[in-house]
Specification:
Two copies of one chain form a homodimer. Chain A is α/β, with parallel strands linked by helices. The first copy, chain A, has two domains: 60 residues, no CATH class; 224 residues, Uncharacterised protein PF01937, DUF89, domain 3 (Rossmann fold). Helix content of chain A is 49%, strand content 10%. Chain A contains 13 helices and six strands. Chain A has a six-stranded mixed β-sheet with strand order 3-2-1-4-5-6, sandwiched between helices. In chain A, α2 packs across α3 and α5 packs parallel to α9. The termini of chain A are close together. Chains A and B meet through α1 and α2 of A and α1 and α2 of B.
Chain lengths: 298, 298
């Protein structure tokens, strides 16, 4: 997905948000925004938003000298998500269709995104969606939720690459991985996290904290971008990417960077921002399970 | 009020919104955002946000060559507000305290702000607030609603200058002016609109369309800014401003540009953006009737 004009506005919003979270005073916040505005004209709008996002956060990090300002937030998110683990595990087990339940729960986890929401919104939204008895995916959204194709791709794939998104959220991914392994104990699952601190995206430490290391082989993609910039990824990641028969891609950032790739990718995400929603043609807030064959907009 | 970091983010949001309303295609929208980012470093952050706002909208106008892109929106707003005139007139007449009712209704009208909201939100919010039976100002907000001081200043003033804000909204201001004239038929009321097209701010044509010309002397301030930039205002406006014993200032833009002036100004507005709300120390959405003596933050 290319960078839309709405993304440019969002870069400034994100820079300010990250500056505040890094503890920057007002003068430093202004400096960050001014320096961002100076860099903007050099940026190619044909790139994907996470490419610029990476530069935006790097600028904030360089100026504030806080290398991982979201560390505390990530640890809190991990704890918050973990507090729901047992309840959700039971919910999946008692569901008439445990796999679809696990898929939906993993998408609910995609709300834990500090690039878009603040902490209170996240806790409230996740709880609200999980408390509901009815299915999270509404009937009118089913055109964006290609579960039959996902189920069939899952059956056939031997090697699965799972692209993680945010800290906390990965507890919800773990539940889906555990469900996949319960159904298909022989599948080989590799879970990829980001290669360096970027917003609240999960790193290896988070994968360890959330128990992903116990259910999948964990690797990093080698890059500190809020998505998957294939041209920069490590050889280890590229190999896993090329060998996978199924790629489960979580979140907007991975969608924005991989939506044009001709690979067996299923994108699991919530359309959180109006630009991504408009690009896909759905409402903001829609739960998405997309693959290339199910769509003509990727 | 000075320009906060949050205002810088908002300038980009406003530029994009205005570009879209002007019918700019995506390429032009990008050009506008890039040119804005190039101009930003030269801007003094000690200025008030409407000073920069004026340049932002001028940039959009220069590039799109649409001189008054909000014209249609303004006309719709006038009609929308007028459709409620009779109902609101009765509501004021039947209120136990018609003046306070008229003040509150005039602040409800401040929602009609296309710099902040979109059309659907405005219609919904205004109707919702007006449908309610209870008073619009909640008890906990009364520290920001200095009605006793306003009532007393109104009694004493001979010349009143009323600074209008947006098209449509001025129908609600007309109701307040009519109530003031019912109570005090001898007061001389001058109503000032903006000197040139800027967002959906009311111009002379709107004052005529909304019947302000029948209840007050209408002048322009001579400037196309979304606030009152005193140093640029016309001699006619400056005279009215200096001679007034009471200035009723509507909306955020007039607040942002006049909040440090030592004049008998009462600011009637809704705190619509988080930056203004934080500056004042209230919640977003609070109804405000502020004067200098009632506050130490102006």
């Amino acid at each position: 997905m290319r960078t839309y004009p709405g993304c440019i506005v969002c870069f400034f919003r994100q820079a300010l948000e990250a500056a505040k979270i890094s503890g920057a005073d007002e003068k430093t916040q202004n400096r960050i925004l001014i320096e961002l505005s100076q860099k903007l004209p050099d940026f190619s709008l044909n790139s994907s938003p996470p490419e610029m996002g990476r530069l935006v956060y790097r600028l904030v990090t360089d100026i504030t000298r806080r290398k991982d300002p979201y560390l505390e937030i990530k640890q809190k998110s991990n704890k918050f998500a973990f507090s729901m683990y047992n309840e959700l595990k039971k919910r999946i087990a008692s569901s008439p269709n445990p796999l679809i339940e696990a898929v939906e729960i993993s998408i609910v986890g995609n709300i834990i995104d500090y690039g878009i929401y603040n902490s209170n919104d996240i806790t409230e939204n996740v709880r609200e969606l999980l408390i509901k008895e009815e299915r999270a995916v509404k009937e009118e959204e089913e055109e964006f939720f290609n579960y039959p194709a996902f189920e069939s791709a899952l059956k056939q794939a031997e090697n699965i690459l799972y692209l993680g998104d945010n800290a906390g959220e990965i507890v919800f991914d773990r539940l889906l991985i555990e469900e996949i392994k319960r159904l298909y104990p022989d599948k080989k699952i590799t879970f990829a996290v980001k290669g360096g601190a970027i917003i609240n995206d999960a790193l290896v430490a988070d994968a360890e904290e959330c128990g992903i290391t116990g259910v999948a082989r964990v690797i990093t993609n080698g890059v500190d971008a809020p998505g998957t910039l294939l041209s920069l990824c490590s050889p280890e990641f590229s190999e896993a990417y090329n060998q996978a028969q199924l790629i489960i891609s979580k979140g907007q950032g991975n969608f924005e960077t991989l939506s044009s790739e001709e690979k067996p990718i299923f994108f699991l995400l919530m359309a959180k921002c109006p630009v991504v929603a408009a690009h896909i043609g759905c409402e903001t807030g829609t739960f998405l399970l997309l693959n290339i064959s199910s769509t003509d907009f990727l």
